[in-house]
Structure formats: structure tokens, C-alpha cells
Amino acid sequence: MIKIVTDVSALIPKAKAKKYNITIVPLTVTIGDKTYQDPISINGKQLIDFMNTHKKPFPKTSQPSVGLFLDAYNKLTADGNQVLSIQMTKLLSGTVDAAREAARLCKGKVTVIDSQYIDQSMGHMVLVAAKMAQSGKYTMDQILDKLNKVRDKSELYIGASTLDNLVKGGRISRATGFLTHLLNLHVVFTLSDKDLHLDIKGRGKKTFYRWFKRFIKHIKGTDLSFIGISYTGSTVFPKFCADHLHEMYPDLPISFLYTSAIVSNHTGNNAFAVMICKK
């Protein structure tokens, strides 16, 4: 059989992970001299609450060790099973590199892929793979082919009310972050082609609503197989998006989740992500 491994940034609820036999490798958050594992000992809301009440120390995230992946791979391949390990985009973490090194050291057969996404877009890919694997009807190549198609049909948009966390995490320059903070700029990025691309920027929360109006026009008349909305902090705008998307796609369940600690540390408070996959 083929077993599925991923990391916590895929934001897969425990019940679904158990149902589809998905192994989730935790990532580490360090605050001062204390270390936590996401989601075992800290979650996204707890991390945002900490950052809202403490200016220092700024939390640091780190990828899983090679050993952690290797332990999971050895356990899953001990009975002759294959492993498909689906990791978050290399743009935000070296997790996929650790997974590939562990795969190289494992005696069993392990295939590692960079999902090129994060959060629920990545989670959707993982669940597609897990359902196919659990059925026992598909080969590794068939699952990989399907994931390539899902990846190509997926879109992920990330809205941030502040870029402070991206500056502190070294994802953007201090000059850009300072200017954004000074002008109260809100931004929406799209994650595509292995990079973050600025989709819209403007002063204040109205920027998000202008972006959503444009987004609705973009997807009008498009058949979707998946909608996910993740957020930190306030639910006002994320719920606005969910309500309008439900009106457009009444028969398609919308996955509405507080994001992981790992993603929260990059986006900061009052952020959102809207993720879709086209049929």
C-alpha cells in the first residue's frame, strides 16, 4: 500500500487525518528559551494571542529534523509499504529538503514532492492523494499525475493587514515593511510559480473588499472542486468571503479554519487566505 505523510502546515483536521491514515509531522516554534510543537503544544490562535500581548521575543519557526521524518518513513515502510510525502512550498521552509534527505536515508521506498503550496491548498492535495491511496486502486505514478493536475488547477490568495511578521521572518525587506506599516497598507498576495506575487495593495481594510470583488469576477462561471478559507484574528472579512462564496457554490462545502502556528507566524494577526481548486 501507499502511505501518506505531510507536515502540519497542510492544516488537516485530526479527524480527517485519522480517517485517511495520514501521518502529520509537526514543526517547531521557539519563543525565547521555550520550544513548542505545532500543533501538539501550540496552535495558531495561541501564537497570535502571544504576539498580540508580547512585542518580544519574536517567535521563530524551524523545519522538522531529518531524523523525525526518517523515523516516520522507517515505521511506515517496515511492512513493505511505499510512502508519498507531500510538503509545503520551499519558498517558505526547508521542510521538503529535510524530507528528501530522510527519504535518501530510508531503506524503504519513499517519494517526496514539493506541493508548491501551503495551508489548505496543500491540504487539499494531501487529501486527494490519501483518498486515492486508501482505495488501493492507484499506483504511485497515477497519484502523482493527479496531484500535478490538482496543483495546476489550484489558486491561493493571502491577505495581510501588516507585513511586520514577514519582515521579522526575513521574507521581505525592512524598508518595504516600514513603508507598509507607515501607510497602513493592506496587501493581498497570490502564491504561484513558486513565489509570492503582489495582487493588490491599498490603505485600510477596504483593500480586502476591493480584492474580493475582483476575485468574484475572476471565478464567475467557473466550476470548483474545493474552497478553503483560513484566517488569523478577526473572522469578519473571512466570514464575508465564506458567505458570498456559499451563495455562489451552495452545494460545495467550504472549509473554514484558523490557520496553523507556522503560517500565523508569517502572516501575523488579522490575515486570511482564500484557496480554490478548479474542476
Mean pLDDT: 92
List the secondary-structure elements in sequence, H or E. Answer: EHEEEHEHEHEHHEHHEEHEHEHE
CATH architecture of the largest domain: 3-Layer(aba) Sandwich
Q: Total domains, how many? A: 2
Q: Which CATH C-level class of the largest domain is it?
A: Alpha Beta
Main beta-sheet strand count, sense and barrel state: 6 strands, mixed
CATH fold name of the largest domain: Rossmann fold
The first-to-last residue Cα distance is 27 Å
Shape: globular
How many distinct helices?
11
The structural class is alpha/beta
Q: What is the β-strand count?
A: 13
In terms of DSSP E residues, the strand content is 25-35%
In helices, the fraction of residues equals 40-55%
Low-confidence runs of at least 5 consecutive residues = none
Strand order, largest beta sheet: 10-9-8-13-11-12
Rg from alpha-carbon coordinates: 19 Å
Keywords: Lipid-binding
Protein name: DegV family protein
GO molecular function, one term: lipid binding
Pfam families: DegV
